[in-house]
């Protein structure tokens, strides 16, 4: 069996990280190639991951047509039998060329609980008529889209996996609780709501520091909001930091205010670092955050509830520590890379 994992790029992101993990895990059992649509940006941490795990990676170059031809040649030369696509461009190119090349099984990938209108009909066509199956990383998206014309018989849900690490509990610095968010600077992440909740906390006299790490189109807007809301003295913005694991471990609380998610990799990282999580109840966040046990879930845009949850955690160190321990154990039991690998192997073994 020869497996090709196909991803758009290797900049920082959840889909990108999962493609690397899948490639590493599957190569324990099969011959695996990770093919990347563009080499524009490769995150340093991902480059290290590739080297450390001896992954076989092929970057496609040149015009769109040239890259499609390169992709076809890889399939033919390596006698690829199975393709795992991760995002829309991969579903399209990997699906069509895979079909034309006679690849035995082609798996599409959908990694959000919603699909934009501009992409919906193409994704549905590819799911129903090109891919043999589509792997969703979230149950919420599978439930919604199966009611909107996606063939439910071709849907498989496999939650993301993560390398479980032994964690070290973080402590306050100068008496201030550190709240952390790692998310791209996009409207989907609703950073304004997070900052509004923090403004409320400041007005209540809570002592905290907020660190937000990411990159994207809203960087300037976010910096403006921080100033307008009077949070310059409490907030630090880090652009594409290469020490994310350390930033999680240095923190006390993780905050996510997304409007939509699939299965959040950043929340998984937070649980892996032993952090309690305050998050909006979107996508499959409910599978990661168990209300009152390892964090709190709120409604979208609910500034007051977010502020209340954060304040409870700031004021109760024991609650933070206990929630962090329970969150870590939950992650270890349900979302390890071994569980992740086993589910993919079951698919491959079933198709043999």
UniProtKB/TrEMBL annotation:
Q: Which InterPro entries match?
A: Glyco_trans_1, Glyco_trans_4-like_N
Gene3D superfamilies for this protein: Glycogen Phosphorylase B
Specify the Glycosyltransferase subfamily 4-like N-terminal domain's residue ranges. Answer: 12-166
What keywords are assigned to this protein? Transferase
Keyword S-adenosyl-L-methionine recorded: no
**GO terms for molecular function, please?**
glycosyltransferase activity
Q: Which SUPFAM superfamilies match?
A: UDP-Glycosyltransferase/glycogen phosphorylase
Residue ranges occupied by any Glycosyl transferase family domain in the UniProt entry: 171-329
Q: What is this protein called?
A: Group 1 family glycosyltransferase
